[in-house]
Design goal:
Elements lengths: L1 H6 L6 E8 L2 E10 L4 H11 L9 E7 L8 E4 L24 E2 L4 E7 L5 E8 L6 E2 L3 E7 L1 H8 L8 E7 L4
Antiparallel strand pairs: 1-2, 1-10, 2-9, 3-4, 3-10, 4-7, 5-8, 6-7, 6-9
InterPro entries: Cyclophilin-like_dom_sf (IPR029000)
Length: 172
C-alpha cells in the first residue's frame, strides 16, 4: 500500500465501488474524493482495505426517500460483518464537524453517530437531485455510475446489492 500511496495524487483521488445483484455484476461507480481531508482519506482507506477492513464484500444497507426524485439516497458501509448496524469502530481518530453544504446529486457523504462514539463507517450517496442542504460531511462526488446507483435503489431488497470490489483508480 505504501507504493500505491506514493503514486496517488493527494489533490484528486478517484475510488470505485463495483456493484452486483441477482447474482451478476452490474457495473462500477467512480467517485472523485475531495482534496486531502481526514474523512476523504478514511473513505479511501475503506475502499482499498489498506488498514484491513474494506467495503468490498459488503452490501448496501438502506434506501431513503425511495422514489423521491429530489431527496432519494442510498446508504452503505457496514464493513464489520454486514449485520447492517454500521457501528464498527472507526479507522481514524477524528471527530467530524457538522456543517451545512449544498447537497447535490451524486454527493458522497460520511455518516457518523455522535451518541455511538463517532463511528465513521457508513456512507450515503444522493441519487435524487439533492436540492436541500445537508449536515453530513460531503467527501466526494460520483463521476460515473449514478444511473447504476438509481437502478440499485429500485431493488426490492437493497441489502441484496453487493459491493463486490472497491479500490482506487490509478492515474495513467
Amino acid at each position: 500500500h505504501s507504493q500505491l500511496n506514493s503514486i496517488i495524487s493527494r489533490d484528486a483521488v478517484e475510488v470505485f465501488l463495483d456493484l452486483s445483484w441477482g447474482g451478476s455484476y452490474k457495473g462500477r461507480i467512480h467517485i472523485l474524493l475531495s482534496p486531502d481531508t481526514p474523512l476523504a482519506r478514511h473513505f479511501k482507506i475503506l475502499c482499498t482495505g489498506e488498514a484491513g477492513p474494506t467495503y468490498a464484500g459488503t452490501t448496501l444497507l438502506e434506501v431513503g426517500n425511495k422514489g423521491n426524485t429530489d431527496r432519494e439516497w442510498i446508504k452503505g458501509g457496514d464493513y464489520s460483518t454486514s449485520q447492517h448496524t454500521g457501528l464498527t469502530a472507526p479507522l481514524i481518530n477524528h471527530r467530524p464537524k457538522i456543517y451545512k453544504r449544498r447537497n447535490t446529486s451524486g454527493a458522497v457523504k460520511v455518516v457518523f453517530y455522535v451518541n455511538a462514539g463517532y463511528k465513521i463507517t457508513e456512507f450515503k450517496i444522493t441519487t435524487g437531485r439533492g436540492n436541500r442542504f445537508n449536515c453530513w460531511p460531503i467527501v466526494g462526488l460520483v463521476q460515473q455510475g449514478l444511473d447504476l446507483l438509481k437502478e440499485a435503489a429500485k431493488q426490492v431488497d437493497i441489502c441484496s446489492v453487493v459491493i463486490e470490489d472497491s479500490g482506487v483508480i490509478l492515474p495513467l
